[in-house]
Amino acid sequence: MRFVRLFVLGVIIIGSLGLAGGWYLAGREAGPAITIASPEKFIGRAGTAAVTVESPTTVGRVNVVLEQNGQSSSVASYAGAAAPQTRVELSGSVGKASQPALVNGPARLVVTASRPVFFGLRTAESTATRDLTVRLDPPRIAVVSIHHFINPGGVEFVVLRASPEDVDAGVLVGDDDYRAYPGAAVGLADPALRVAFFALKHDQDVNARVSAYARDEAGNVATTALDHQPTNKKFLQSKIPIDQGFLDRVVPAIASNTPELKIDTASPEGLLKGFLAINGDLRRKNADTITALAAKSRPEMSWKDAFLQMGNSQVESRFADRRTYFFDDKEIDRQVHLGFDLASVQRAPVHAANTGIVVFADFLGIYGNCVILDHGLGVQSLYAHMSSLGVKPGDSVTKGQELGRTGSTGLAGGDHLHFTMLLQGVPVNPVEWWDPHWMEDRVFRKIRDAGGRR
Hints:
The structure is a single chain. By secondary structure, this protein is α+β, with helices and mostly antiparallel strands. The protein has three domains: 32-134, Distorted Sandwich (Coagulation Factor XIII, Chain A, domain 1); 140-233, Immunoglobulins (Immunoglobulin-like), CATH 2.60.40; 237-423, Distorted Sandwich (Glucose Permease (Domain IIA)), CATH 2.70.70. The chain is 19% helix and 41% strand. It is built from five helices and 32 strands. Helix 2 (244-257) packs across helix 3. The longest helix is centred in the first third of the chain and has 26 residues, at 2-27. The chain is globular and about 110 Å long.
């Protein structure tokens, strides 16, 4: 009996020690992993805090609070759910609108999270913090330049004053955002000065609101109306007949370069269907590629005079021609031609319209062999349907330098150059850019008036 009592006592002691050890070790287990997605640096008048909590076991509780000057306010919380969760995403409002006591200065976002351990008898906790700056004063924005004129497909240039120095600035035309660049790009010494080109798209309401804006990292925004004079513009309507010979020549060549379209080139019906996919779906995909290339534009103005039109060329189609396509005398499609078709002799040399850097030189769907040059400040030029390319991405080119030769690659009826100007990836009318008087009066004069060099 004595032995039994000693045995039971030993079991109790060992069990107690095991429980104590388990309790102790459970207290040293790691809490849930916490990720603070936002805000990153600043808090303004209104914003969102986004937090993700992940745990190898059930997430217990999560609290998100904002601390400043010894005071704290709740942003979001989680106290469990009917179904156990190993991943919890929380969001809550942060800013003066939701925490009225906030003032300019430092603040801290604190996230605490727990999970049950040791059979739910203990919890393992973790904490994550992020130091932030509360910025409640809105930035300032003013329009410095005068005389702004705009028409569908056209471009205008503006000089802005934005502060503080770290804010983003630009021009909104309707919902379209045209970013501004530091004034140093055109020789302006004042760090508050910014410059921007903005456009009215060919199909945009001529009375679209045009405003300048400044936006800081805290989300504070200031806007001001940009005084301008809009004028309407009519574009040509044209009929484009398509025959079987054109489909036989053009569609298979494009299909071989874009296998993802899965075009049937073995039958007349497949070729016609393929043409419609090329003229619509591929056209839009190519436009997306062109828009993405705008991100490569440099913060400098590389040109000093007007752009060159292709020498000894005849205009075959103009910017924003409204085209209706016919096959067997039946209307099959409608598209807008966003450039100039310029014809000269076959395999004519294609020259750079102005100084720039090659950002694209390859086959590009409807444009065939294509070159795109970046001239800085969001301005680029496009050269399409070329038979051969003489440059590669990254090459610096000078005004008048040969880029390649004209041809009929892509969606082209014959040997010619399709040329257009681009602003932040938006096709715009080249006529203005070819005009020395427009360049002097609408761009260079404004730069000199603001104290720059051009």
